Amino acid sequence: MRLVRWQGLVPLVLLLLLVVLFWLLFGDRVVRETASEAATKALGTQVDIATLEVREGESSIELRGLAIADPFDLRRNLIAAERIRVELDAGPLLEKKLIIRRLAIGGVRLGTSRAEPARRVDDNGFAATTMRNVREWVATYRHPVLALTPIDTIRQIVLDPTQLGTVRAATALAARADSVRGALEGGWRALELRTVFDSSEALVRRLAGANPRTLGLDGTRRALTDIRRAVRQIDETKDRVEALHRDARAGIAVLDTGLSSLNEARRADYAFARGLLKIPSLEGPDIGGALFGPVTLDRYQRVVYWAELAQRYMPPGLRPHARDGPERLRAAGATVAFPRARQRPDFHLQAGELDFVLPSGAARGEFVARLSDLTTAPALVGRPMRFSARRDAAGTGIGDLQVAGLIDHTAGRVRDSVSAVGTGIALPGFALPGLPLRVEPGTGTSRLDFVRGGDRVAARWTIRAADVRWLPDSARTRTLNPLESLVARVVAGLRDLEVTANLTGDIHSPSISISSNLDRTVAARVREVAGEEIARAEARARAAVDSIVNERVAPVRARVTEVRAESERRIEEARARLAEERQRLQAQLETLTGGLPLPRG
Amino acid sequence: MLTLLKLLQSLIKALHSEGTPAQVAAGVALGAALGLTPLVNLHNLLIVALILVLNVSIGGALLGWALFLPLGFLLDPLFHRLGRQLLLDTPALTPIWTSWFNSPVLPYTNFNNTIVLGSLVAWLALWLPIFFAARYGVTRYRATLGERVRQSRFYQAVTASKAYNVYSWFRPD
What we know:
The structure holds two protein chains of two kinds.
Chain A: H1 9-43, E1 47-55, E2 60-70, E3 73-88, H2 90-93, E4 98-110, H3 126-140, H4 165-191, H5 193-206, H6 212-277, H7 284-313, E5 321-324, E6 334-337, E7 347-358, E8 365-375, H8 378-381, E9 385-392, E10 400-408, E11 415-427, E12 430-432, E13 437-440, E14 442-453, E15 456-465, E16 469-472, H9 482-492, E17 497-506, E18 511-516, H10 517-593
Parallel strand pairs in A: 4-7
Antiparallel strand pairs in A: 1-2, 2-3, 3-4, 5-6, 7-8, 8-9, 9-10, 10-11, 11-14, 12-13, 13-16, 14-15, 15-17, 17-18
Helix pairs in contact in A: 3-7, 4-6, 4-10, 5-6, 5-10, 6-10, 7-10, 9-10
Chain B: H1 2-16, H2 21-36, H3 42-53, H4 58-87, H5 94-101, H6 114-143, H7 146-151, H8 153-160, H9 164-168
Helix pairs in contact in B: 1-4, 2-3, 2-4, 2-6, 4-6
C-alpha cells in the first residue's frame, strides 16, 4: 500500500486555482464587507463602504463612499468621505501587519443626514458596551433640574415613612440595641455572680466566731485554704466583670455611632422631602447645572466615548492584549496581539491628511486636517498620535477654528489631551431645560479642553457670546406658571452669555461644576420674588420629616440610653458587691492568721 | 444534488470496501480537524492537502467532517477557554506566540485566536483516540451490519450511480 496518492495533487491544484479565482472575482467584496464589519464593531457605530478596490500592484486600497454614522445620533453621519486612498507598505503584509504610509481622504463632509438611520450596534463588543456605560452614566447623573413648580401650589407633602432613610436606620438601630442587650444579658448570666456570692457568704457564715484554737491546726489550715480559694474566685469574677464592662462599652459605642448616623440620615431626608416639593434651588451652581448640564454632558460623553476607545485600541505597553475575534458562524473568541520591541505594530497609520469644505453650519469653511501615528501599539512606534484640524478662514471674517490633540500611550500611563478653540464662530444653539426656550448664542467663542492622565480627567468647556437670542421652542410650547414666566423674563433680558463647565475626577464619574452669568441673575430674581415662600415650604418639609422621624427615633434613643444605664448600674453593683465580699473574706483571714497579709492568686 | 449523492456514495463506499479500516479511520481523524476547527483557516488548507495527497479514505474524511462539525460548534466555549489559557494565561508560552506573531505567514493561520488555537490543540490531542475509535468502529461495522447493508436495494441504487466514478479516482489503494 502506497503512502502517497500523487493524483490527489490535481484537485489540490484545482482548489488553489479556485481560491485564486474567488479572490479575483470576489476579493474586493470580501475585503469591503470584512472592513465594514470590523470597523462597525470597533467603533460601535455603522460604517458603510460603497466600493473598495484592492490594487495589489500598487500596494494600495481605494475606497469610495465611506460613511461613519454618529454613535450619538443615528440619523447623521459623523463623517462621510467620497474617496479614500490607502497606501500600504507591502513587506509587513506578509506578517499580517497593516502599515499605512499615507492616507488621503477627499470629498469629506461632516454631520450629514443619513437617508436611513444607522442600525444600532447592540452587542457585547467593547464599543457597544462603552456606549451603554456612557449613556448609563449620563442617565444616572441627575444634576438638580431647575424645577419651576409654581410656589403658590406648594402646600403640603405626604411622606411614606418607608421612604425615609432615618426610619430605616432607626429600625436597624433598635434591632442592634436589642442584640447588644441580649449579648450583655448572656454575659451576665455566664458570670454566675449569685453562685460566687452564695459560696462566699456560706464560707463567712461557717467561719463566723471561729479561731485557730477552736478549729485546731488542721481545721485552721482547711479554713485558710477555703478562704484563699474563695478570694481567688472573687478576683477571677472581678476580672470577668471588667471584661464584660469593656464589651458593653464597645457595644454601646456602636449604638452611639448609630445614633449619630441618624442625624445624617435626617439631613438626607430633609433633602429628599425638599425634592418632593420641587422647590427651585437658589444656589448658583445648581441653576447653572440645571440650565447647561444636559448640553455639557452631551459634549462630555462624546469625548469620553472616543477616549475610552483610544484607550482600548491603543493600549500602552508591550503586554499581549486581547480583542474580540472576527465575526463568523462559529464563536468569535478573542484575538490576541503579541507586540515585540523593535518590531512593527500590527496597525500603524503613519500619516493621514484630509481637506474638506463645510458649506454651512456653525463650522462652515475650508478645513485642513492631519493625523499621524495612529497605531495599535504606541509603545512600538514610540511617538504619540497627533491630530489637528484648522479652518483656513483668512479674509473671510468667519473666525478661526482649531482642533488639536495628542494621544500619548507610549508609556505605561496614558496621557491624552484635546483642545478645540473657536473664536468669532457661529455657536450652535441648544434647548434650555425646564423652559420652552432655545438659546441661540450667535457669534462667540467656544473652547473645549480635555486632559486625561490615567483614569483621571480634567475638562473645561466655555462659551462666550455677546448677542444671545432666546427663542421660543415651538416643540415645547406651553403655558408658563408665574415662576417660569419670571425666569423666562429674566433670561430673555440678557444679551451676554458666559458659561463655564468644569469636569474633574475619575473619567467614569467626574464631578461637574457649571457656572454661568445667568446663575446670579436668576437666583437673585427668584429669591426676590419667591424667597420667603420657598423658606416656608422648606420649613414645612422639615416639619413633615421631623414628625415621622421623632416618633420612630425617640424610642430607639430611649432604648440605647436604657441599655447604657442598665449596663453601668449592674457593673457598679457587681464591683461593689465583689469588693465587699473580698473585704469580709480578708477580715476572716486576718482573724485566722493574726494579721498576716493575704497573698493574691 | 449531484454533490450530495457523491457524498453519500463516498460515505457508504468508505464504510464498506474502499480501503482498510485504518485508511478510513485516518480519513475520519483528518476530517475531524475540518469539523472541530473554524473552516476558513490556513491550517485547514494543509489538512485538505493531506487528505487529498495521503493515501487515506476521502469518504472517511467527509464522514469525520460531518460528524465533528456540530461538535465543534458545541465545544466552542471550551475551545475559547483552552485557547485563552494557552495564549494569555500561560506565561511560559508567550515568547513562542510573540515570535510567531512577528514572523511572516504564521499570523495568517490565526493561531492567536482563542477558538482557532483551542480547537486545533483539542484536535491534535484527540487525533489518535479518534483514529483508533474509528478503526475499531469500521472493523466492527464491516463484521456485523456491513454485509446486510451491502445486500440492500438502497446500497445497490447509490453505488450504481455514474457519478460515483468521479469519486473512484481517489479511491485508496
